Amino acid sequence: MEALKKEYEYYLAHKAELDKQYSGKAIVIKGNAVIGAYPSRIEAVKETQGKHEPGTFLVQLCGPEGDKPLVFHSRVAFT
User: Fold this and answer.
1) Rounded to an integer, what is the distance from CA 58 to the centroid of its chain?
2) Could you count the other beta carbons within 10 Å of the beta carbon of residue 50?
3) What is d(CA 79, CA 70) in angstroms, rounded to the nearest whole number?
4) 58 with 45: CB under 8 angstroms?
5) Is 47 within 8 Å of 36 (Cβ atoms)?
6) Phi, psi dihedral angles at 13 (to 5 degrees)
7) pLDDT digit string (tens) for 6-44?
8) pLDDT band of 67, cuts 50, 70, 90
9) Dist CA 2 CA 4 (whole Å)
10) For position 69, what pLDDT does the model report?
């Protein structure tokens, strides 16, 4: 998955300082820059998708919670 590799590598390279500065916030990374910080991932996506094409930015939760993987549940049943 190459789409947001640069953004994720930026996050990893600056993780300590970003986690300290934005702890508990969802940050939006585009290219090699933080372009926004929001109280939740949902707010980050809603606010950013109006200004930037979806799939061109990374939303990352900072702080200890940011290291937990996201789990999505669905009520879809296959038979």
Assistant:
1) 4
2) 7
3) 26
4) no
5) yes
6) -70, -25
7) 999 999 999 999 999 999 999 999 999 999 999 999 999
8) low
9) 6
10) 54
Tell me the angle at which helices 15-22 and 5-13 cross, rounded to the nearest 10 degrees. 80
How far apart are alpha carbons 77 and 20 in whole angstroms?
42
Alpha carbon 4 to its chain centroid, in Å, reads: 10
Write out the two tokens for 78: 């296959």
DSSP string, the chain: --TTHHHHHHHHHTHHHHHHHHTT-EEEEETTEEEEEESSHHHHHHHHHTTS-TTSSEEEE-SGGGGSPP---------
Q: The tokens 């606010």 sit on which residue?
A: 47
Return the structure tokens found at 20: 């300290």
10 Å Cβ neighbour count for 11? 19
